[in-house]
Structure formats: structure tokens, C-alpha cells
Write a structure and sequence with these properties.
Layout (H helix, E strand, L loop, with lengths): L13 E5 L4 H13 L4 E6 L19 E5 L5 H10 L4 E4 L6 H6 L2 H24 L13 E7 L24 H20 L3 E6 L1 E3 L8 H11 L3 E4 L5 E6 H14 L4 E5 L4 E3 H18 L1 H6 L15 E4 L14 H7 L7 H14 L1 H8 L2 H10 L6
Parallel strand pairs: 1-2, 1-4, 2-3, 4-5, 5-6, 6-10, 7-9, 8-12
Antiparallel strand pairs: 9-11
Helix pairs in contact: 1-7, 2-4, 4-5, 6-8, 8-11
This protein binds nicotinamide-adenine-dinucleotide and thymidine-5'-diphosphate.
């Protein structure tokens, strides 16, 4: 069922941002507070290993902002927050998001990505559709459940295959992408069956500030600074499309404000790179920063540059990820034509900004590297072998 676009949201919506203490969620909070300063922004986050309150430090003083600690699987809590805050827009980021973790332990992916998404849908249906006479119902004529999803639900492409469109059949291959696919189907089902106003965006690989350093780009930057190996899975020729995180946030904003309920929009950067090329690029840009900044040389005395070596010397080929998808590529034609979406950041500017952010925010990533993440990492790479 596709309903006509009921124009926009209420003039000043009240947003529930799930997973707002994670990478994209935190960037989205800053994006929204800056671009829609009169809207209410409530974050619900369980603060798993991937959630970090320090990432929201810059929002805490804003009167429009509130942080609630809790899980999206807690129906009573979700209901209470939505009623208290008169939530009319859910922007759903909360998820277990790391493919490698899903391979080693899929259970939390099922709990959060599938059961948690269903809990949010149930509450949205209950408060927005089933109880229209609740005291705040008069504000809720234009509710929206926006679900943030991934291009990984479409499976893997071979070189030369056309990029994913919104009608590409789902073929997820990891427990992560399978759980995201299930959540997408549930969102569609709630629109089709109950008429819930939903939109979904499926986006390619993001990079930028506040990304947990287990994902490729921040892992490479922080490992160089510590002179640790840069692990390349398999032959390093897997291809990903990379998008600067603010451009993802802008695409979600467009889908919420301009998107048609029930529709799906692909968001991508038209920016495909092999893993090995991207790692080499990051290495050379970090070396360039060291060459021009003596302060960096003092702060990171272990970096290869200090020994007169290139960061590339840290590259180490390791055992491939099981079921490793070869290539992802997004065709964002529909999103461009229907929503006017065009990424604003070039890869050249975005990757430089990102590297500078990690160089300037050592405290943020070091507290992660010194904590539980390190224990997990040790269990993962204990069995990694050089190719
Ligand atoms: P992330 O792992 O950095 O953050 C996830 C956040 O969700 C964390 O703050 C975590 O504490 C929170 N969370 C986890 N389980 C929760 C629960 N049960 N209840 C409440 N909060 C919970 O993830 P990310 O990279 O910011 O991704 C955000 C969303 O975007 C995910 O849905 C992901 O599938 C999607 N996505 C990510 C990318 C990417 O490249 N990172 C690309 C496309 C789509
Ligand atoms: P990642 O950042 O985990 O994102 P995703 O798997 O969701 O695309 O990985 C991006 C690519 O980089 C992926 O092909 C796996 C590869 N990779 C490595 O080669 N080494 C690493 O240490 C990591 C984390 C990823």
C-alpha cells in the first residue's frame, strides 16, 4: 500500500533517535540540532560496547536534547518515553552493526535488530494508530517511522554487475545483513498491513567522526598511530562504496521530510574502492600529516613515520572473513530524482576531514582502545594468519 505523501511532518516534530550514541546516530543528532533547532531530539540508547556518551557531549547542554539510557527491546520504556515526549517521528539507528561480530556471535543481532525493531513498530502502531484519542494525539497527524538500513541486505555483486537499486531482490549473506533484512521486511509489513507511515533508507559504507575503531577506516588510522598491523582480509580486492556520514544524515533528512510513506530510498556515494586501495590512501594521507606537523611527531612517537618508514609497511594480509561479500555498489538514481539527493562531500575532502578528526580526538578513541574492545579484538585476531 502506498499512501499519498501527507505533506511534511508537524511544524516542529519530536524525534526519538534510537542508537544516537553510536557512530551515525551521534552525527545525526548534531546534524538535526543544527539544521532543525526548534525540534525536540530524544536519544534512546542501550550504551552497548558501540555506544558512547562522550560522542554526545556537544549536545548535552542543548535544551531540546534529552538522553535516555535503555534498550529498544524494553517495550514499557519505549512506550513511556514516546508518551512523555509526545514523539511523532522515530529515526531508528539502534543496531548491532559489525559483520565480524555477527559471525562470531549472532544472538544480539537477532535481539536488537529484529526483536528490537519489532518492539518499536508495535509501540508506534499502538500509540499512533490504535489509540488516536490519547491526550497528545491531536499533534500526531504526520507521524513517521524512519528505518535506517544498509546496502548489505542486497547481497554481493561481481565486478561489472549493475549497482543495487531499490528493486534488487534481497540476498543477505551474513547474520548482520540477514537481521537487517528481516527488520526491513517488518517495517514494510507494518506499512502494508497497518498503514504505519514508514520510510526506509538503505545506505552504503559510512565513514567520518565518532566511528568505532573496529571498522576499517578508523581501525587503520588508529593502528598506524600505535604502529600496529593493518589487517587486510583475503586478497584486499573486495569493493565497498564509501559515503561521508553527514551526507547520509542529509539523505535521511530528505527521506523524512520529502519521502513518500511506504517507500525505500537507496543512499550512496558513487565512490567504489577496493579495501587495499583505501588502506594505502589512508596510509599516505596520515604520513602527509606527520610530514607537515611536528606536534604529531611528538604525540605519536610510535608511528612508522618517526622511524623513517611508510605507514604502508604495517599492511598485513590475514585470513579472509567467512562469507565475505565481494562488492557492494548503490544506484541512488531514485533518491536523486525523487528527493533531490546529491552527496556534498567529495571523498578527497571527507577522508582528509576524517583523518584530522581522529588525529585531533585521541582521547575519544583511546578510551575505547583501552577498554573492552581490546579484549574482543584479541579473541578475533588470535587465529588470524598471514596469507
Ligand atoms: P554503531 O554500532 O556505531 O551504533 C549502534 C548504536 O546502537 C550504539 O550506540 C549502541 O549502543 C546502540 N544499541 C545497540 N543495541 C541497542 C539496543 N538494544 N537498544 C538501544 N540501543 C542499542 O552503528 P552505526 O554504524 O552508527 O549504524 C547505525 C545504523 O545505520 C545501523 O542500523 C546500521 O545497520 C545502519 N548502517 C550503518 C552503516 C555504516 O557504514 N556504519 C551503513 C549503512 C547502514
Ligand atoms: P567494515 O568496516 O567492517 O564494513 P562492512 O564489512 O560492513 O563493509 O569492513 C569494510 C571492508 O574492509 C570489508 O570488506 C572488510 C574489510 N576489512 C579488512 O580487510 N580488515 C579489517 O580489519 C576490517 C575491520 C575490515
Amino acid at each position: 500500500m502506498t499512501t499519498a505523501n501527507p505533506s511534511l511532518l508537524t511544524p516542529h516534530p519530536s524525534l526519538l533517535i534510537t542508537g544516537g550514541a553510536g557512530f551515525i546516530g551521534a552525527n545525526f543528532v548534531y546534524y538535526w540540532l543544527k539544521n532543525h533547532p526548534q525540534d525536540r531530539v530524544v536519544v534512546l540508547d542501550a550504551l552497548t560496547y558501540a555506544g558512547n556518551l562522550a560522542s554526545l557531549h556537544g549536545a548535552q547542554a542543548n535544551e531540546q536534547f534529552r538522553f535516555v539510557h535503555g534498550s529498544i527491546t524494553d517495550q514499557d520504556l519505549v512506550e513511556e518515553v514516546m508518551q512523555t515526549e509526545k514523539i511523532d517521528t522515530i529515526v531508528h539507528f539502534a543496531a548491532e552493526s559489525h559483520v565480524d561480530r555477527s559471525i562470531h556471535g549472532p544472538d544480539p543481532f537477532i535481539d536488537t535488530n529484529i526483536v528490537g525493531t519489532h518492539t518499536l513498530l508495535k509501540v508506534a502502531k499502538k500509540l499512533w494508530l490504535d489509540s488516536p484519542l490519547t491526550p497528545h494525539a491531536s499533534h500526531l497527524t504526520h507521524q513517521r517511522f524512519h528505518h535506517v538500513s544498509t546496502d548489505e541486505v542486497y547481497g554481493s555483486l561481481e565486478p561489472g554487475d549493475p549497482a543495487f537499486t531499490e528493486t534488487t531482490p534481497y540476498a543477505p549473506s551474513s547474520p548482520y545483513s540477514a537481521s537487517k533484512a528481516a527488520s526491513d521486511h517488518l517495517v514494510q509489513a507494518y506499512h502494508h498491513t497497518y498503514g504505519l507511515n514508514t520510510t526506509i533508507t538503505n545506505c552504503s559504507n559510512n565513514y567520518g567522526p565518532y566511528q568505532f575503531p573496529e571498522k576499517l577506516i578508523p581501525l587503520v588510522i588508529t593502528n598506524i598511530l600505535e604502529s600496529k598491523d593493518l589487517p587486510i582480509y583475503g586478497d584486499g580486492l573486495n569493493v565497498r562504496d564509501w559515503l561521508y556520514v553527514d551526507d547520509h544524515c542529509r539523505g535521511i533528512d530528505l527521506a523524512i521530510h520529502e519521502g513518500t510513506p511506504g517507500e525505500v530510498y537507496n543512499i550512496g556515494g558513487n565512490n567504489e574502492w577496493t579495501n587495499i586501495d583505501i588502506v594505502k590512501l589512508v596510509c599516505s594521507l596520515v604520513d602527509e600529516n606527520f610530514a607537515s606537523d611536528s606536534g604529531l611527531q611528538q604525540r605519536f612517537p610510535n608511528a612508522p613515520f618517526i622511524r623513517g618508514e611508510k605507514s604502508e609497511s604495517l599492511i598485513t594480509y590475514v585470513k579472509d572473513r567467512p562469507g565475505h561479500d565481494r562488492r557492494y555498489a548503490i544506484d541512488a538514481t531514485k533518491t536523486r530524482n525523487e528527493l533531490g539527493y546529491v552527496p556534498q562531500e567529495t571523498f578527497e575532502t571527507g577522508i582528509r576531514k576524517t583523518i584530522k578528526w581522529y588525529l585531533d580526538n585521541e582521547e575519544w578513541w583511546r578510551q575505547i582502545m583501552d577498554g573492552s574492545y581490546q579484549d574482543w579484538l584479541d579473541t578475533q585476531y588470535g587465529d588470524a594468519c598471514e596469507a
